[in-house]
Structures are given as structure tokens and as C-alpha cells.
Specification:
- This protein is mainly alpha-helical and about 325 residues long.
- The protein has one domain (about 20-215, about 225-315).
- It contains 12 helices and 2 strands, in the order ααααααααββαααα.
- A hairpin with an 8-residue loop joins strand 1 and strand 2 (about 235-240).
- Helix 1 (about 15-40) packs antiparallel against helix 9 (about 240-260) and helix 3 (about 80-105) packs antiparallel against helix 4.
- The chain is globular.
Length: about 325
């Protein structure tokens, strides 16, 4: 049987795939570093919910101030956009963070990330069976290869005792992650990445303000000093400075990079490339926190990179 002929879709003149892949890799690397930063902040006594609230609200405030000073017109929100942004912010950006923080309390970080990164599979399934878009066989192969690489990174064979609630939280993170990638791909057609992320974090912040009002936030912790642990245990920084890093370089910049990349590459490919995050997190945890980095992790990282190149080659 001959394969059906798929006519090429005319490419947008401003699409630059290599730029899109570089943006996602940079975002994944920043998220990898942010995992260690967040782990240090959580030792200060803040809960995962409070940390997610700080991350969302801080990102919204800084983005809104920047846009008000430079491009105030982009802060106009059209009525037809509101339902999408409510879902994008509250259902995507807010919940993916919360579910992730819940998961790493009950599971090893690597296992939680492995389950969370089922999201690109969900994106591909949505594209193929709901949107009826052609998903080439090489993309499915890249997904399988990337998941195999992540399994090596976390050494999935080394005796796992999975907590049911932790697995459920990780699956929730996967669903939320897939949701915000798909919605971002839809919204980016009419919005610039900065205002898109800004409105997303607005509705994420509103959700957290309802669940956990700000007057109940333990503000005294913010001024305390905390050890950086691991190889930097002798160094201490105030919690607020780590929060500032988390909000700017751990949230605003990587989310804007990921959303901006969707102007250049499809959501399915962006999801595959973002699987570099656990590899980056393992490297940072080794260099900073003194966690082990053996042959399986190195081999897994190579396999994930091979999957990324395979996805990129699927023209």
C-alpha cells in the first residue's frame, strides 16, 4: 500500500526553526537550574503552594510593569480572549507548578519529571486524533527515544516504590503542561510572547489569591538567610534573593522563551525539545547539590539529545 501524499503547508516567512529549538533548549536549561533553586527555597519553611503563589504573582507584577512602561497597548484584553486566558493561566501555568511541587514531595524528582514529560505524548495525540493533523512517524520515534533517555537519567530500574498520590500529581502536571503548550500555540497567533505570558500569570495569580489569601503568607521567612546546600553549603543568601531569581530567570524568561518558540516550531516538537529539562536538572544537581551523576545519566542525556535531533529532522 502506498503512503498518502501529504501536501506541504506553506511556511510562515518569519519562521526560523533553529531559533525555535534554541529558545526551547535555553528555557529547559533555566528550568533545570530553577529546580535546585526551588529545592533550596523549600528548605526555608515555605510550602509548595506558597512557592507557586510567589512565582506566579511575582512574574505577573514584573511583566505588567514592564509592558505598562514600554507597550501599554499590549495590556488590552479582548473579551473573546478571556476564556482562553483563564484556562491558560489557571488550568495550565498555575496547576503545572503546583502539581509538580506536590509530586516532588512524594516522589524522587527524576521520577516526577519522567511522568510529567508524558505531556509531549499527550500533545502529539491531541494533534493527531483531535485536530487531525499529520504527525510523522519520526516524531513518534523521537518521543519514544526521549522517554527512554529520561528513564536512563532517573535510573527507573533501581527499585521504585511509587506513591499513588505522587503519581497522580505527576500525571496532573503532565496534563496541565500539555494544556498550556496547546493553548499557547493557539494564542501566539495574535499575541506577542510577553503579553501572552503576562495574562497567563494574571489568572494564575488570581487562582492562588483565592485559594491562599496573601494576608496568610508567612512574610517573616522572606528576610531569613538560607544555606545553598551541597557544594555551596557554606554560602548563605536571603530567601528573597532566591525568590527573585526564581521569578525572573526561573519563570518569566523560560516561559517567554517557550511560548515565543511556538512562532517557529510546532507544539509537538517544542514539547520534545523541552524534555532536555530533566537532563539539565540532573547536571545542575550534580554540580551544585552534590547528587550523583553516573554513566546511566550521561547516556540518558545523549539519548534525549538524539531524540531532539530526530524530531528536528522530521521535516
Amino acid at each position: 500500500m502506498t503512503e498518502p501524499v501529504i501536501l506541504p503547508v506553506p511556511a510562515r516567512p518569519d519562521r526560523r526553526p533553529l531559533v525555535g529549538y534554541a529558545m526551547v533548549l535555553a528555557a529547559a536549561a533555566l528550568w533545570g537550574v530553577n529546580g535546585a533553586v526551588s529545592k533550596v527555597i523549600l528548605t526555608s519553611g515555605l510550602s509548595s503552594l506558597e512557592l507557586a503563589e510567589v512565582r506566579s504573582t511575582g512574574a505577573f507584577v514584573l511583566l505588567a510593569l514592564a509592558l505598562a512602561a514600554t507597550r501599554p497597548a499590549s495590556l488590552r484584553l479582548r473579551a473573546r480572549e478571556v476564556p482562553y486566558f483563564v484556562l491558560f493561566g489557571a488550568g495550565g501555568l498555575a496547576l503545572v507548578q503546583w502539581f509538580y511541587f506536590l509530586a516532588i514531595h512524594r516522589l524522587e524528582i527524576g521520577i516526577a519529571l519522567l511522568i510529567q514529560y508524558l505531556a509531549p505524548v499527550l500533545v502529539a495525540l491531541w494533534a493527531r486524533y483531535v485536530l487531525h493533523e499529520p504527525v510523522r512517524q519520526r516524531i513518534w520515534a523521537a518521543l519514544a527515544l526521549a522517554l527512554a533517555g529520561l528513564a536512563l537519567v532517573v535510573e527507573i530500574w533501581s527499585g521504585l516504590s511509587l506513591d499513588a498520590a505522587g503519581v497522580a500529581a505527576s500525571l496532573g502536571a503532565a496534563g496541565s503542561y500539555a494544556l498550556y503548550i496547546l493553548l499557547a500555540e493557539h494564542l501566539i497567533e495574535e499575541r506577542d510572547p510577553v503579553s501572552l505570558v503576562c495574562f497567563g500569570f494574571l489568572f494564575a495569580s488570581l487562582l492562588w489569591a483565592i485559594i491562599h489569601p496573601w494576608w496568610s503568607f508567612p512574610g517573616r521567612i522572606v528576610g531569613n538567610d538560607v544555606s545553598l546546600h551541597g557544594h555551596l553549603a557554606s554560602w548563605h543568601l536571603p530567601v528573597w534573593s532566591l525568590m527573585a531569581w526564581m521569578v525572573v530567570l526561573g519563570t518569566i524568561v523560560p516561559f517567554a522563551l517557550l511560548v515565543g518558540s511556538l512562532r517557529h516550531i510546532a507544539a509537538t516538537r517544542a514539547g520534545i525539545v523541552a524534555m532536555f529539562e530533566p537532563v539539565a536538572a540532573a547536571i545542575v544537581a550534580w554540580a551544585w547539590l552534590g547528587e550523583s551523576l553516573g554513566t546511566p545519566q550521561l547516556l540518558g542525556g545523549i539519548v534525549v539529545l538524539a531524540a531532539i535531533f530526530l524530531a528536528q529532522s522530521a521535516r
